[in-house]
Amino acid sequence: MKLYVSTFAPNPRRVTMFIAEKGIAGIEQVMIDLAANEHKSEAFVAKNPLARVPALELADGRVLCETRAICTYLEGLHPEPNLMGEGFEERAFIEMADRRVEMHLFLGIANSVRHTHPGLAVLEQPQFPEFGASQGEKMREHARWLDGELARHPFVAGARFTVADITAWCALEFARGLMKFRPGAEGMPHLQAWRDRMAERPSAGR
Question: Which Pfam family name is an example for this entry (predicted)?
Answer without folding.
Answer: GST_N_2
